[in-house]
Specification:
Blueprint: E1 3-8, H1 15-24, E2 30-36, H2 47-57, E3 64-69, H3 73-79, E4 84-89, H4 92-108, E5 113-118, H5 128-136, H6 147-157
Parallel strand pairs: 1-2, 1-4, 2-3, 4-5
Bound molecules: adenosine-5'-diphosphate (ADP).
Length: about 160
């Protein structure tokens, strides 16, 4: 059994994240979407709201679970019997931070490997930050996030 943890802020979950998870379910036995509290980033949605949104998206996937976390990622990964940390790469600009993060996590836990999946090209430009920005300015976000997420963003932004 190879279990993977896919950590992120998911504020909110987008079709880019969803595509990555769907592809990962074909490679790993179980995928745990790990929703970081990321309080330093001052997220639009609370951790519980982000967990609920992601859970609804993956409710039909028996090998995907969604869990919030606020502790060290490698500890969370071990606690979930996972040996892989999964991350997505969109552009070269993602690389430097991801490289640093993977190096730090390998240092902390040499038995855990970080594995990257590259974005599907139609989602290469897609980020939660941009989705919120477009929504704030009244733009159409139907191509970027599921319907339920749109409703929640609208409610949040009033
Ligand atoms: P974080 O705050 O940890 O970057 P995000 O929720 O922004 O959390 O992203 C979680 C992971 O998903 C990161 O590895 C990020 O590169 C990846 N990701 C985000 N958007 C996309 C996308 N459109 N395509 C592929 N991967 C993505």
């Amino acid at each position: 059994m190879v279990n993977a943890v896919y950590p992120g802020t998911f504020d909110p979950i987008t079709y880019g994240h969803i595509d990555l998870v769907k592809r990962a379910t074909k490679i790993f036995d179980n995928v745990v979407v790990a929703v970081a509290s990321s309080s330093g980033k001052q997220p639009l949605f609370t951790m519980q709201e982000r967990v609920t949104l992601a859970r609804n998206v993956f409710s039909d996937y028996s090998n995907v679970s969604v869990v919030g976390f606020d502790n060290l990622l490698v500890d969370f990964t071990k606690d979930h019997n996972a040996s892989v940390i999964l991350r997505g790469l969109r552009a070269v600009s993602d690389f430097e931070y991801e490289f640093q993060l993977a190096g730090m996590n390998r240092n902390l836990a040499p038995d855990i490997e970080t594995i990257f999946l590259t974005t599907a090209e139609q989602y290469a430009y897609l980020s939660s930050t941009l989705v919120k920005e477009v929504a704030r300015l009244g733009g159409n976000i139907t191509k970027f996030v599921p319907e339920q997420v749109i409703a929640e963003i609208k409610q949040k932004l009033g």
